[in-house]
Amino acid sequence: MAANPLARWFRRITSLLTVSFLLLALVASAALGDHANDSCTLLSDANKQQTSVAENSSPSGSRTGVSATIRAIDPNPAVQTVIVRSLYIFKDSTQANFIEYGWKWLINVSASTHVNDTFDFEPKPFAVRVANGTYFLTEGPASNPPPGWASVDPGTNHPFRIEANIDGSHPNTFYFFRDGLDSGNLFHGLMQNGFVVSGSEGNALCDSLFTHHFSMQRETGAGWNTWSNAVKLTSSFGFPDKSKWWYFDKISNGDYRLDHCTSANCSDVN
Amino acid sequence: MQLADQDKGRLLVLAAAALIAAASVTAYLASARDDVSDDFAARGVGAPNPEPGKEVPIEEVEELIRQNEGPLLPQQGKFPADSVSRAWVDDYGSFGFQFHSGLSVIFSLESRSHQEAQTAFREMVEADIADYGFSPFTVEGIRATVGLAHEAASDGPASLGWREGGLLIQIIGYGGESLSELRELASSMSATATTE
Predict the structure, then answer these.
(1) Kind and range of the H or E element at B71?
(2) Contact A61/B at CB under 8 A
(3) Which residues are CB-neighbours of B138 under 8 A, at least 6 positions away?
(4) What distance in Å separates the CA atoms of residue B67 and residue B71, rounded to the nearest whole number?
């Protein structure tokens, strides 16, 4: 029996459309890099995954230094946009003045609009100074000053430290030490009081926020001591928790991890 | 070479599928770019906390300014006190005002002496002006001897900072205000102390 020409045409259209949509799905999948448990689409700065931990919700006394050993992770799947692990000293709640030091791994340069922020082949130490809302980032051995040199190996732990006024005569100079070695400094003439924060960032939902910050200390007039607490910050501090796939696990006041959830937006522990 | 009707039809459908795929990818990439650029434009580089501290009545912040002999916002002009959208106080010795545009006026208790602050400002200008772009400025009326000024640039908004009374005062043009507008506001702020 001869086939109906209209039915044959319909079958052809249907099969071609099916193939087209399969190809389209393949292209979209590649574009989205949808190989983790969520999209690898580059998120805006306001919507990126971020978890920040402060010493206290209302600290008393000024902090002039902060230190922690931070794991340089080796994520699987690999970094898609940019991930950051860092320590901060903030002047106040405005975020208009702070010092930041840690490592960054920038793969998609569109994920950053900061001047001097460049592609990284592996985790690279960096330092940031924000003064009166003006952002200054320095990284790499050729920068001035160099906040450390070369890179840090993925899968290894590294002590990072920010300390102001190490010689007692430079209260506005913030010195950086990585693995105990002098790694340069930045001058900030508007910082006096300070509170300390540590953080983990990733600009795609498929990027890892896993971190392990431990041996966390801060410096006051009484010297260096373990953080008195480790509190996950909220939107009231300008640090909304946007860690869809990562939960906060406080091990002790000076030791916390961000670990992977088994389902989205799972609860913190401890 | 002549194409059969069915081949023409197949080519037509393939072309349509390719167009759909190309349009989809283009739209996806464009939307991703728009998402990022719109947001950075809205937040700015080195984005501020949109709601610092705890919101309080404007009079509470004005009283703190008076207690520390700082300058009050003007009653008239482009940025008068009655157009403040939010007054706030935080736990870190800072308090201030925000305007609807995003313009921020921040006051911080200054633990340094006037001389120490002046030295810090001068060092900040001299130490790395090439990287940082701060320049010295003086508030008209000589309420402060030296402050820091920064033109709006790719690394941040226009800003001013100076010490007056017992306070460090910072005006930051998060709403896109120009440095000249900030200078105008600084000049119009009325000192609550007659001497430094």
Answers:
(1) strand B71-72
(2) no
(3) B144, B145, B146, B147
(4) 11
Q: What's phi and psi for A98, nearest 5 deg? A: -165, 165
Three-state SS at B68:
coil
In this prediction, residues A204-222 reach a mean pLDDT of 94
Compute the average pLDDT of residues B144-167: 88
Residues in chain A with CB shorter than 8 Å from the CB of B28 are 28, 31-32
- Can you say how many angstroms the Cα of residue A22 is from the centroid of all Cα atoms in its chain? 36
Cβ pair A195:B92 closer than 8 A: yes
Q: What stretches of A90-192 show up as alpha helix (H) in DSSP?
A: none
Share of chain A above pLDDT 90, in %: 52
For residue A230, pLDDT over 80 is answered with yes
Q: Kindly report, residue by residue over A102-136, the tens digit of the pLDDT.
A: 999 999 888 887 777 888 989 999 999 999 999 88
| Cβ distance of A115 and B155 shorter than 8 Å | yes
**Which of A20, A43, A238 shows the shortest C-beta gap to B20?**
A20
Q: Which of A188, A181, A72, A66 is nearest to A133 (CA)?
A: A188
Q: Considering the domain boundaries, does residue A178 fall inside one?
A: yes
Whether chain A has a CB inside 8 Å of the CB on B60: the answer is: no
Q: Is the residue at A150 inside a domain?
A: yes
Q: Which domain holds residue A86?
A: 51-260
Residue with tokens 């509470």: B60
CB atoms within 10 A of CB B136: 17
Total beta-carbon pairs less than 8 A apart between chain A and chain B: 193
Of A42, A131, A187, the CB nearest to B123: A187
With an 8 Å Cβ cutoff, are B120 and A44 in contact? no
Distance of alpha carbon A232 from alpha carbon A65, whole angstroms: 19
pLDDT in tens, A35-66: 356 899 999 877 888 899 999 866 677 899 99
CATH number at residue A121: 2.60.120.200
Q: Which of A99, A112, A109 is nearest to A161 (CA)?
A: A99
Residues 82-101 of A with CB under 8 A from B: 90-97
A131-185 confidence digits (pLDDT tens): 999 988 888 765 555 556 678 899 999 999 999 999 988 889 999 999 988 888 8
Burial class (CB in 10 A: 0-12, 13-18, 19+), A9: middle
Residue A243 inside a domain? The answer is: yes
Place of tokens 């990072």: A160
DSSP conformation class of B27: H
For residue A31, pLDDT beyond 50: no
Give burial (CB, 10 Å; 0-12/13-18/19+) of A23: middle
Count of the separate structural domains present in chain A? 1
Region at B69 (left for phi over 0; alpha for psi -120 to 50; beta for the rest): left
A269 in any annotated domain: no
